[in-house]
Amino acid sequence: MKVTLVKPQGFCSGVLKAVSIAKKAKEEHPDKNVYILGMLAHNKTLTDDLTREGLITLNDSDEFAAIESLKAGDVLIFTAHGHGEEIENKAKEKGLIIYDATCFKVKSNLEKIKHEIEQGHQVIYIGQMGHKETNAALSVSKNVSLYDTQLLINYQLITDKNPYVINQTTLNYKSIDKYYSDILEHVPGARIENEICAATRLRQEAVTKIDKDTDLIIVVGHQKSSNSNKLFEIAKSNYPDAFVLMVNDLRELSAIKDIETKRKASVISGASTPQYVVDDIYNYLLSK
Ligand code: SF4
Predict the structure, then answer these.
(1) What is the per-residue pLDDT across 91-150, written as a single tens digit (0 to 9) for each?
(2) DSSP-derived 3-state class of residue 2
(3) Is 109 in the pocket of ligand 1 (CB under 6 A)?
(4) CA 279, 275, 53, 79 torsion: positive or negative?
(5) Do the two domains 2-10+198-286 and 13-102 of this chain adopt the same fold?
(6) What residue segments make up the domains of the chain, in order of their start?
(7) Which CATH code is given to the segment(s) 2-10+198-286?
């Protein structure tokens, strides 16, 4: 089979930094329990690798309860997706040693939201309901309203004539314009800033440039990874005749029989997928 690795590959700078912070936390506290408040970045292989290095990933379905279950002196790492101030205060009250692995881009967006709120503005946040990055943004103030990518928004809540519009970093850069048009139709004075991160945008652009005769497109990423899901979405809509699938790793891929009949494959990776997982898949496909 002819196989192309679609670049960029490997961890984005935000995930690279988060991994180095997590490893540093363990190195600096070898005798302590070192916890991560949920997946450091949304990738199962990465989570398993960190577990092997002695880091414990907490179930973050209730972040307050997860923190409550720890004891003073334990180490807690906040994930790359960001977290709310109340969560951080709770960890401090509890006497935990804190490491913050929030991506610089997510952090900068949270600062922008805070600034707008302090200036007396309302904020419209375009994001996926329930995602940690969205939760962190909404937790800044009740004056941040969610424009959910599925459910839209309650415009009655927006009384500011010039609200600030910002977004989750890993949205689909082609689809975001339709949200902007809708917002401007309802609130013509809205001030819009596109904050899709470069790592997300470059990967999405690269997907649209895959050869048209490719009959197999594999996104290597986790189903919770927002940027991987967007790559899958874009590949599906741009290449309706290709077999497009998303897998975590080679084990999942090798269980799929249909790929044996394909002749030309492209492999894309999410921003939190370890490179060695992609390399395994690449070599496997080459052998077909
Ligand atoms: S995908 Fe973008 S926002 Fe997310 S960790 Fe990477 S650089 Fe940061």
Answers:
(1) 999 999 999 999 999 999 999 999 999 999 999 999 999 999 999 999 999 999 999 987
(2) strand
(3) no
(4) negative
(5) no
(6) 2-10+198-286, 13-102, 105-192
(7) 3.40.1010.20
Cα separation of 264 and 128, whole Å?
33
Is the CB of residue 37 less than 8 Å from the CB of residue 83?
A: yes
Buried b (16+ CB within 10 A) or exposed e, 92-129: eebebbebebbbebbeebbebbeebbeeebbbbbbbbe
CATH number, domain 13-102? 3.40.50.11270
107 lines ligand 1 (CB under 6 A): no
Q: How far is the CA of 5 from the centre of ligand 1 (A)?
A: 20
**Which CATH number describes the domain made up of 105-192?**
3.40.1010.20
Greatest CA span in the chain, whole angstroms? Answer: 60
pTM assigned to the model: 0.94
**Residue of minimum CA distance from atom 7 in ligand 1:** 14
Render pLDDT for 149-158 as a digit per residue (tens, 0 to 9).
Answer: 877 899 999 9
Cα gap 27→130, rounded to integer Å: 32
Catalytic residue among 116, 133, 195, 233: 133
pLDDT at 220: 98
- R_g (Cα) of the chain, nearest Å: 20
